[in-house]
C-alpha cells in the first residue's frame, strides 16, 4: 500500500498505477494474456497465471483496492458472491460455526443457511444492533462473525464498533460486506474489522457494465482468501480488472453526490402522506441514525420504502416512474428501482422474508447521479397518480 497520498480522492486516481509508466501509457494497459514466462517462483500461488489472479492487471487493481481502505492487501474475484463465499470458506471448515447478521443480501443469506450446512458448518443469525445478545449464540466452535455495513434491503446499521471488539474478545474473524457504504463513507479496516468485502459490481465500478468482487484486509488474511480463491477458480479477467480500475477513479465524485441526493429524496418520501415507511440511515427518525451518524462520512445512495397501498400500489408506482429503471443491482450512475421479493431476495422463502421484515410491497431504490430535482419531480408525479 502506498502511504504517499492522504486522501481517498487522490488514492483512487494514483494508487496502484505503475511507476514508471508502461511505455508512457497514462492508463493502465490490459495484460490480456493467460500465461506468463516462468520467473523462478517456488510457490504455486506466485506463478504468473491468469487463474491465480496475479497478472499485472490484477496487481494494479489490488493495490488500489487496498489503498482506498487503508489496508495491507486486497484480492479481486469474479463477483461479489465469489468474494464473500470464498472468504467464508477460507476461514470455516467442517465442524465450525458462524454468527451472521439476520438481515443480509439474499444470496449470502442462502449460502449461509443452505449451503454451509452441507459442508458441516453451523450458523446462527444475530441482530447486529444488539451486541448484548450475541454471546448467547456464541459456541465453542464459532470462528467467524459476518455482517453488512448497511443491510440489504432494510438499510439497518448495526453496532459496528462492537463487532470487531466482540470478535477479538472471542478470537473470531470479523467480516463485513461494505458494498452499500463504499470506502468513501466507511472504511472497516480502520475500525478493527479483519476483512472488508465488496460487490465491486456496484459502487466501486459504478457503471453497470461488469461483475466483480473483492476482499480487503491484512496480508495474512487476504492470502488465505487468495489461496482458496485460486483453488475455487473465481478469477477476474484482465479486461474487467481494467474496467473496474477505471470506474473506481470517479467513485468519490459519484458517491458524494449520491449521498446528498439520496438524503433529499429520503426526506421527500418521509414527508409524503402516501408513504408508510422510509428506510434510510441518514434520516433522524431512523433507528440506525445514531450508529450511522457517528461512523459514516455519508449515508449512501440506497434506501427502501413501503407505500400505504401495499403490493399493488408498489407495482403501480414503479410503472409510473419515468427516470428510474426497474432492474436489479445497484450503485450505478443511473437510478434503479426494484422489489427485493422478486429480485435480490427471491431465493428466500416467503416466511424467511417475513422473518427479517421484507414484505412483498417493499421497494428498494438505488439513487443515481441524475439531477435530484428531476428525480423528485418524477417521484411526485408517480405518487400523485396512485
Key traits:
2 domains, Aspartate Aminotransferase, domain 1, alpha/beta, 386 residues, Aspartate Aminotransferase, domain 2, five-stranded mixed sheet, seven-stranded mixed sheet, globular, 12 strands
Strand content: 5-15%
* Mean pLDDT score: 95
Enumerate the strands of the largest sheet in spatial order, edge to edge or round the barrel. Answer: 1-7-6-5-4-2-3
Number of domains: 2
Radius of gyration: 21 Å
**Number of strand segments:** 12
Largest sheet: 7 strands, mixed
CATH class categorisation of the largest domain: Alpha Beta
Sketch the topology as an H/E string, one letter per element. HHEHEHEEHEHEEHHHEHEHEEHEH
From the 3D coordinates, which CATH architecture of the largest domain would you assign? 3-Layer(aba) Sandwich
Count of alpha and pi helical runs: 13
CATH topology of the largest domain: Aspartate Aminotransferase, domain 2
- Poorly predicted segments: none
User: Kindly, what is the distance between the CA atoms of the first and last residues, rounded to a whole number of angstroms?
Assistant: 53 Å
Look at the structure and name the CATH superfamily of the largest domain.
Answer: Type I PLP-dependent aspartate aminotransferase-like (Major domain)
Give the overall shape: globular
Provide an overview of this structure.
The structure is a single chain. The protein is of the alpha/beta class and 386 residues long. The chain folds into 2 domains: 8-248, Type I PLP-dependent aspartate aminotransferase-like (Major domain) (Aspartate Aminotransferase, domain 2); 251-384, Aspartate Aminotransferase, domain 1 (Alpha-Beta Complex), CATH 3.90.1150. It has 13 helices and 12 strands. The N and C termini lie far apart (53 Å).
